Amino acid sequence: MPDLFSDVQPNIPTQQTQPVVSTPAAVIKKPVHIFTTFCQNPRNITFAEQYDNETIILFLRRDFITNVPWLATTIALAYIPFLIRFIFVSLNFSLFSIPSVLFIPLVSFYYLIVLGFAFANLVSWFYNIGLVTDRRGIDIDFNDLSTIDVATASLPDIKDVEYTQSGFFQSLFDYGDVRVRIIAGGEVFTFSKVPRPTDVAGIISQLIGKQEL
Amino acid sequence: MNLDPNILITSFSSGAVLYVKIALLILIGLYLLFSLMLTTKIHSLNKTVFLPAESGEVVIRFFAILYLLAVLSLFIATIVIV
Asked: pTM for this one?
């Protein structure tokens, strides 16, 4: 008759648990270039008030395709004086004759404005950065030129991560919004128009899971 | 009644040139403030996030200063030349 209960413990192999945090030796740091929009384990990036042992896991910017509208506008604005001149010459019509002494500063000023518009948009894209570290998420917004908004959420405070990809272009170019819901007050912290939102949400979820273990 | 399109052509008198010059100087002056603000914002953003040189941060900073100098040069040129 078989023993139902026995003092002798059977030799069951113990289940190997995965390390909660990967060893630093296993992590390959990648460089961030001027057009980098998604970089896992970025190299040589730090931020103000970073802890000594805090590691940046994810570096995010808006997808580069989101720059197309302002790039197209800049090109259109650059051609507008030529277009106006062409129309006026072809109709043999002019509203006023501008002296050459005024013409050069006016045209130079116009093109400096066009260049400034492009540069301001480039700077806005370049410095709209999202960072995910092993301790928190940081969202740096530089939307209009007068406002710098830095939002931080520590990983234990993060309740939920969700992403949305709406519309044809977001699906085609694989970018979207990643929303991080924070426990306190249910505030939402958004990495907007970032590439590979599925991966971003996955990485943040993994980090939250590691924190909870 | 036949209207000659060239009737709309007005010649700039020296007084009109002066008015346009003053208006242009005010506009360029305001724009100079905008470009100065852009440069200071870039400077403060570089104190928030420290990006490596390979990320193009140096290029952005250099271009911001170059742009500020270009607007300043235009302001001075408008005073001197016009």
From this structure: 0.81
